[in-house]
Amino acid sequence: MRILIVGSGGREHALVTVIAKSKLATELYCIGQNAGISSLATMVPLSLSNHAGITEFALQHAIEFAVIGPDEALVGGLVDVLEAQGIPCFGPSKQASRLEGSKAFAKAFMVRNHIPTPSYQVFTDIDAARDSLSHCSFPVVVKADGLALGKGVIIAETLEEAEQALQAMMVQKIFASSGKTVVIEEFVSGPEVSLLVLTDGIHMKPLVSCMDHKRAYDGDLGPNTGGMGVIAPNPFYTEQIAARCMESIVLPTIAALMREGSPFVGCLFFGLMLTQQGPVVIEYNCRFGDPEAQVALSLLDGDVLELLLSCRNGTLDKVQVVSKKASACSVTLASGGYPIAYEKGKAITIGNLPKGVSLFHGGTSYDKSGQLVTDGGRVLHVVGTGKSLHEAITVAYTAVDAISYEGKQYRRDIGKRALQEEEHGSSCVHNP
Length: 432
Hints:
The chain has 432 residues and is α+β, with helices and mostly antiparallel strands. Helix content is 29%, strand content 26%.
């Protein structure tokens, strides 16, 4: 099969890596620029928003299956455009992608379908939003309604911080039109779980649970990022909690989407918070998470392309989804100053990497002399695997030390909290 992967970040490098191993994949093409992917697939320098150009390329090259990675392309309706031209896709329709494209839509969807989520209010007028803050208890969560590269969520500890968030989103428009509408949400606490679920619209199969680390600096300090690291499986996601989440959240979500005329085909991401009152949904994403995909796909056994095809063809119930009984840890290497401001073009040196490491490129390219250089905020995702979480973390950080470039920034505590929980005896779900 001739396969097109849309997107060129760390998530897509992980997808290309596993798809390239499939006996079904004969030719691989990838939209975007990524030095790591370029050794596995032919890179196509088109913008993600250029749906006409992507469709024209797919038709000219007789693409038989397209895998859509980024939220921007999915929310923008690329699947609908390609499918209308007879090109089968892994990914949800524009209508189904509203779960990620609008936080206000997602919250209303959960409320009307009795899916547990924190209480909230939606505002398009900044004065009304400010007025509501006077009745809030703090902290509160202020969210830009639309897409914001994982950075549109601000936990405001004080009234002043909340008002600053509203000003930045609604007046300064730091997230462009995504902040025109804001959601002010009740703050809840507890361990977070990232759950990736494959679905063909009717059937569903979860991948291994993950724990993301969103904040830029050690100790969960600093601004939110696209993700500074992740571990899997998540020790807080025990078999008992998994069963409860399936019954109260996952299955009702997929059934409600079908019932409302928006069957979801692809990977549905559940951002969960395990509160003292029970699990709640903090967010939905309409695609593989990044960096969650890097660990979840690294732990998957079998032919992943067959699995993705079964989602599109409505036959997911006929295939097995098996995750290895192992652990994985991904450490994100970022450019200095990320996520605020950073420079590109810094030369990257990669030394000897230990056994059990996969290196996924997030933002890299080659300069005119052929030198590998930084070309984004999140540069590399260093994934270590091992029989235990401790082993996976050790392998990942050993590899981190073997990679150098000017301004290399990363967290040194990825997996620390999970390791403490695991040592207390939690039994996490390794093999869903």
